[in-house]
Amino acid sequence: MEIERVIDETPTVRTLLFQDDIMEGALPGQFAMVWVPGAGELPMSVMAAEEPGMAAFTVRRRGAASTGLYDTAKGGLIGVRGPYGRAFEATQGRALLVGGGTGMSPLMRLLSRLGSASHVDVLIGAQTEKEVFFEGLAGRLAGDVPHRIVVTTEDGSYGRQGRVTDELEGMLDEKPDAVYTCGPEPMMHAVVRAADSRGIPVQASVERVMKCGVGICGSCCMGEDLVCTDGAVFDGKHLIANSEFGSVFRDKSGTVRNV
Amino acid sequence: MEIERVIDETPTVRTLLFQDDIMEGALPGQFAMVWVPGAGELPMSVMAAEEPGMAAFTVRRRGAASTGLYDTAKGGLIGVRGPYGRAFEATQGRALLVGGGTGMSPLMRLLSRLGSASHVDVLIGAQTEKEVFFEGLAGRLAGDVPHRIVVTTEDGSYGRQGRVTDELEGMLDEKPDAVYTCGPEPMMHAVVRAADSRGIPVQASVERVMKCGVGICGSCCMGEDLVCTDGAVFDGKHLIANSEFGSVFRDKSGTVRNV
Amino acid sequence: MLASGILGISVDVFRRVLGAGAGAVVTKSLSREPWEGYSNPTITGTGGGGWLNAVGLSNPGASAFAGMLKGQGLPAVVSLVGSAPAEFVSMIKEFRDGAAAFEINLSCPHVAKVGLEVGDDPGLVGEIVSAAKRAADVPVFAKVGLGSTHYIKTAGAAAEAGADAITAINTVRAMSIDVEAKKPVLSNGFGGLSGPPIRPIAVRCVWELASKYDVPVIGCGGVSSWEDAIEMMLAGACAVQVGSAAGGRIGIFGEINAGILGYMERNGFGSVKEMVGLART
Amino acid sequence: MLASGILGISVDVFRRVLGAGAGAVVTKSLSREPWEGYSNPTITGTGGGGWLNAVGLSNPGASAFAGMLKGQGLPAVVSLVGSAPAEFVSMIKEFRDGAAAFEINLSCPHVAKVGLEVGDDPGLVGEIVSAAKRAADVPVFAKVGLGSTHYIKTAGAAAEAGADAITAINTVRAMSIDVEAKKPVLSNGFGGLSGPPIRPIAVRCVWELASKYDVPVIGCGGVSSWEDAIEMMLAGACAVQVGSAAGGRIGIFGEINAGILGYMERNGFGSVKEMVGLART
Ligand SMILES: Cc1cc2nc3c(=O)[nH]c(=O)nc-3n(C[C@H](O)[C@H](O)[C@H](O)COP(=O)(O)OP(=O)(O)OC[C@H]3O[C@@H](n4cnc5c(N)ncnc54)[C@H](O)[C@@H]3O)c2cc1C
Ligand SMILES: Cc1cc2nc3c(=O)[nH]c(=O)nc-3n(C[C@H](O)[C@H](O)[C@H](O)COP(=O)(O)OP(=O)(O)OC[C@H]3O[C@@H](n4cnc5c(N)ncnc54)[C@H](O)[C@@H]3O)c2cc1C
Ligand SMILES: Cc1cc2nc3c(=O)[nH]c(=O)nc-3n(C[C@H](O)[C@H](O)[C@H](O)COP(=O)(O)O)c2cc1C
Ligand SMILES: Cc1cc2nc3c(=O)[nH]c(=O)nc-3n(C[C@H](O)[C@H](O)[C@H](O)COP(=O)(O)O)c2cc1C
Ligand code: FES
Ligand code: FES
Q: How many H helices and E strands in chain A?
């Protein structure tokens, strides 16, 4: 796959756009295994592209693979397999999307498919102003659907000061019909518990170490679930019943670690 | 595949019927590779069955494999792969079918699909009365189509005395629109030449040693043709241009032998 | 039986696999220390249901795993890798109360100094299996594959040293190159081929082993349906492991069980034993 | 290049294959006397485009074939099987004027005393290749496969004895059993696995050979598209043979040629040489 356009979102986050029918058809929340020759392979949520026929990934540079992908310029080649996993189920009515960091990426794709929602709230969390992205895009993707976009930064340099969870209660009071979340696991854990305790259906896209992406290697296990095939999107009730969610994950060796 | 019914045609020829959708769908002239566990595997033209949903093979016992198949009783198991090869192209109008021995089998299947012909002549050759078969069946398969069935025996014990080729000239004088033949190669050679020299389209189903049936092994070559994939049914003009037709074949080792 | 390295690092997942109908599970091959394994890509498809992997024996280490299995009473076969008899002995000792059997991995085709490189040295194989047998109070299996020493010799050495069963086969050393990237797909270059493509090779190995030695053979390689499982048994396997085919399809164990039962009924077999090696008679 | 044993017994068919775009053809492996081979079934499908065959090296014998090729000027590589150096020498002598090269089959996995059983004896391989080199006035290739002796050793012995190229690989010894008949499908029981399932194994062998020896490697095994052919070249093959995939699809040679040309253009390669072994750099 050839990268056709690169967008700098923040100093550490880029969106890479490319033409591919298969990825363009991915459902929101599905992911792909993205190979950066020489650098590695990693799971990436399929991101929305504004251009028809295009798909995208939004990547933050962290380790070798993500940095390799981040550094892939226009014209660069990547290998993509998938899409894999379960997607968000888009429900009707009023929707609340809560995302942190690159976890916004599947939510953006979901937003681009929420045309029949009655109202959409998007809650975006970041550490600081420079790391805020997708605010403008969220507005464009929401299009005609009545929407509100709220940004929080931990240092208060942009939007409201604090964490997304601080804003959450108020927005849940407005009784959304469905909550969708993706981001750091402690954040998702809080969102899932808060929504579920009020009886509001919630879905979260979970992250684990992935090697195969297709349910062979077991590296992505979370309790008895395999995040790659049973998820990455899970229903909130299911997650609450899974004692490993929000608590432990397995590193690359399979050693159990705290989230 | 389980054999459901066995018909003794002559002291050395039997028809084995079985239920199989794939073989039931074989076109007339196509063949299958039939495995008789323990005895061998051999190419067999798919034969017509009067029972709906059934297909059949008609086998003369000769060597190990054909005798193994011949000896397979009701309830016996055979393995079948295929159908393979090109089929007879059924043309409109007046048809002449010329067969010898088990070469009648693909012609019978063809006859069962000639419902739109205006007239069908069937010319059956055998050595002696006891070896005549399919005469009654040919009549039944022709059904409403006006038809004539002529049998020749070399010893004159049944039908007209002589070889099929002796009757051929007279029947070609009646200007059939198409001639179809299957049987011993010298007979087919004569039929093809006679029909072609009068400008009558003729198709023949050729026999060669077959191991794979799918164009891999080359054992069935006749000139540059592979009988398994380019045939077994060939157009007469093509056969006349092939210097090996009617002249030489390769035995199991690939050694060239006279037909 | 679930093959080693497939879904094999968590007790919760084992329970799910057992619930789906597997008679036993084999753990990911464990080493004395935790191993990260190779970096991604570690797995790639090769067509026809085949997979090429070089996970690099990533595992949390024997101690951590022993802790997980302890007292759970699971029918878990603990797979072990190492280079010397003492390593195996020390790992085996960690598993008092937790292992139903041990499987010595003599055949991983893509990690240096362990697996195949051990299997390729029949003398060492004999020492390891003897030592493991002495240390273990449960059965010890030896898992062989196609290496630079003929697997028949490796299996022979293991059998002579007292192995209770031979598992055959592991993945087959192989490689895929991406023509656009012009590089091997796996980060390690070489990997092991598994899935339906290797089934006919595995069936042949099971047949050859069962014909040659008296020790029970556990068939592994490309089994993805009940017919494949029966094929292994007819060749001589008294038990069958399913690896790649369980990927994304944990229900396969139940399907295979049901298929085998139906087959046995149709063919009048009273027990699995009657089928083992039947095609060789 | 058409691989040995595929469509390989008639000059007319060779012409057709060459006309379809093959650069050369390899004959069926020939023995001193004609061989009938095994009785049918000799070939069976194994899924995923794989084939298992035990044709049993049926062939009309070297003399008969030499007569057919004589003076035809075809780019025909004559494949030979035998058990002793003298046999190969006497066969090679029959082919004055008719062979563009010889390929010594050291790797047929299903016939006793020839093929793999010879390849498993590196000493004998050395003798045969030396003798063949002395007798032949055209290049001599040695074809290796996965046997009980590691193919790297066999290839090494052939290279040392002066082989002009190594062809890798032959079919892989394997078996299929029919669960209803409860018997191996092939009359010979064992056969050789070919087609896409073995491609990753063949690519690995080409890579390993090209990395280890200086002698040119001819890639063979599972090539069924231009991508597969390029993959072989990137691994280190300077020529590629197509076997099973040519079955029923002789036009594949033209398709592969066109695909390679397009690829070279897109990637700016001026000659095939630039691609050979590129993935290893
Ligand atoms: C389904 C799914 C979708 C994803 N979508 C995106 C996306 O759209 N954009 C994006 O930028 N990233 C996404 N990720 C995360 C991404 O795949 C990588 O894990 C991340 O980029 C780090 O990979 P790396 O190989 O570069 O770094 P590594 O060298 O593997 O790690 C760098 C750091 O991140 C930590 N880390 C890596 N993986 C995990 C994990 N699973 N859980 C906890 N910590 C971890 C490491 O411990 C280390 O501190 C997704 C992950 C999953 C499972
Ligand atoms: C496309 C095709 C369709 C066929 N359909 C039928 C059919 O419907 N019914 C039927 O009974 N047979 C049919 N045959 C012939 C059949 O496949 C076998 O060749 C025949 O039954 C003998 O096989 P065997 O293995 O029993 O005997 P073998 O032991 O192989 O041979 C017995 C005798 O037959 C001779 N023979 C075998 N094959 C050939 C050959 N190809 N050309 C010349 N001589 C040969 C042998 O030389 C030997 O004398 C067909 C063949 C082909 C290629
Ligand atoms: C991703 C993956 C990881 C594997 N890890 C191991 C391992 O740790 N130890 C081992 O003995 N075999 C391992 N294997 C090999 C399998 O246990 C099995 O022998 C092989 O895959 C063939 O079986 P299959 O075709 O059913 O998958 C692994 C296979 C795969 C695909
Ligand atoms: C039917 C058949 C017959 C073969 N006969 C020979 C042979 O006589 N000599 C030989 O060296 N290889 C023989 N081979 C092996 C092929 O030449 C080739 O090495 C193998 O099939 C792998 O290539 P492929 O996957 O492209 O078929 C034969 C293969 C098949 C399928
Ligand atoms: S990533 Fe391999 S099982 Fe989920
Ligand atoms: S029978 Fe094998 S090519 Fe025709």
A: 8, 17
pLDDT in tens, C138-150: 999 999 999 888 9
pLDDT tens digits, residue range C159-195?
Answer: 999 999 999 999 999 999 999 999 999 999 999 999 9
Chain D residues whose CB is inside 8 A of the C207 CB are 175, 189
The domain limits of chain C are: 11-38+55-173+194-275
Q: Strands D140-144 and D165-168: what pairing?
A: parallel
Q: State whether residue B238 sits within 8 Å of chain D by CB.
A: no
Interchain pair A41, C12: CB under 8 A: no
How many angstroms separate the alpha carbon of residue C46 from the centre of ligand 1?
26
Q: Are B249 and B105 in contact (CB under 8 A)?
A: no
DSSP C280: G
Token duo for residue A151: 């940004």
CA of A63 to the centre of ligand 1 (A): 8
Q: CB-based contact (8 Å) between B76 and chain D? A: no
Q: If you average pLDDT over every residue of chain D, what do you get?
A: 93
| Residues B93-258, CATH architecture | 3-Layer(aba) Sandwich (3.40)
Which long-range CB contacts under 8 A does B205-208 form with residues at least 24 apart? Answer: B205/B29, B205/B45, B205/B88, B205/B103, B205/B106, B205/B181, B205/B231, B205/B232, B205/B233, B205/B234, B206/B231, B206/B232, B206/B233, B206/B234, B206/B239, B206/B245, B207/B43, B207/B232, B208/B249, B208/B250
Residue in C28, C43, C57, C65 to test binding to A, most A beta-carbons within 10 Å: C43
pLDDT of residue C192: 96
Q: Which residues contact D5 (CB under 8 A, 6 or more apart)?
A: B217, D28, D29, D53, D55, D79, D243
The whole-model pTM stands at 0.92
- Amino acid code (one letter) for C255: E
Domain locations in chain A as residue ranges: 2-84, 93-258
- B79 to D181: CB separation less than 8 angstroms, yes or no: yes
CATH class of C11-38+55-173+194-275: alpha beta
Give the Cα-Cα-Cα angle C78, C81, C82 (nearest 5 degrees).
Answer: 140
pLDDT at C135: 95
Which H/E stretch holds residue C67?
helix C62-69
| Closest ligand 4 atom number to CA of residue D3 | 17
Buried b (16+ CB within 10 A) or exposed e, A152-185: bbeeeebbeeebbbebbeebbeeebebbbbbbbb
Cβ atoms within 10 Å, residue D273: 10
Q: Please tell me the predicted confidence (pLDDT) of residue D8.
A: 81
Q: Which residues of chain B have pLDDT under 70?
A: none
Q: Do domains A2-84 and A93-258 have the same CATH topology?
A: no
- ipTM associated with this complex: 0.91
B43-71 tens-digit pLDDT: 999 999 888 889 999 999 999 999 999 99
Pairing of strands A233-235, A202-205: antiparallel
B221: which strand partners?
A: B226
Is the Cα dihedral A20, A22, A23, A27 positive or negative?
positive
CATH T-level assignment (fold) for domain A2-84: Elongation Factor Tu (Ef-tu); domain 3 (2.40.30)
Label residues D97-118 b or e (16+ Cβ within 10 Å = b): ebbbbbbbbbbbbbbeebbbbb
Give the chain D residue nearest C151 (alpha carbons): D148
Contact (Cβ atoms closer than 8 angstroms) between residue D17 and residue D246: yes
- Provide the β-strand partners of residue C53: C43, C192
How many angstroms separate the CA atoms of D8 and D14, rounded? Answer: 7
Inter-chain CB proximity C179 and D263 less than 8 Å: yes
Q: How far, in Å, CA of A237 to CA of A216, rounded? A: 26
Average pLDDT over residues C274-281: 93
Asked whether C144 and C119 are in contact (CB, 8 A), the reply is yes
Q: How far apart are CA B92 and CA D59, in angstroms?
A: 44
